[in-house]
Amino acid sequence: AWLSAGQLSLGKISANPDTIAQIPVVYLSQGARVAAMQFDLSFPAESLSVLTMEAGPATAAAYKSLLVSDPAPGVKRILIAGLNQNLLPDGILLTLKVRLGNSVPSGSYPLLFSNISASDENAGIVALNSADGLLTIVEPIRPIDSKSDFSLTDPATRERMTHAATTSSSANILLRMLPAYGVPGSSASMK
Q: Helices 155-165 and 169-177: crossing angle, nearest 10°?
């Protein structure tokens, strides 16, 4: 007989340093009958700090509790169970809130499932597959402001922009805006 296996997944999330990333743990039953589950979630503790884990809509819909322990640094052990035989529906089981410090370097950080076990409403063993996650830290894009190193008053920069204006309508629009910003040597229109 063919047995169905449910699926746990974290997905791929991008975030900036010095923020709190919210990462959902998603469950798809795919025909499996799961009433309770336990798994470990590993993360690089030297770079990421898990603040909280909050039960998601799928956990609440089945009237289950979310219990979390810390068996080792960088590992969270998660138990989703209840004093009922309700099956877990498809959806978000829980959301991790992860603090990203301002000194966390840009790059990709794995979020890994392990030690997965699940049971049905009669305490029978149910197979669960998993898809690990990846948290990518990206530096935010800084806007150019009047104090930046980019100088529109530099004659060479103005010359390159004037040349580009002959082939680019975007550059022509920019050059028409320069007088409004007090850039010396710029004219109100370009030919």
A: 140
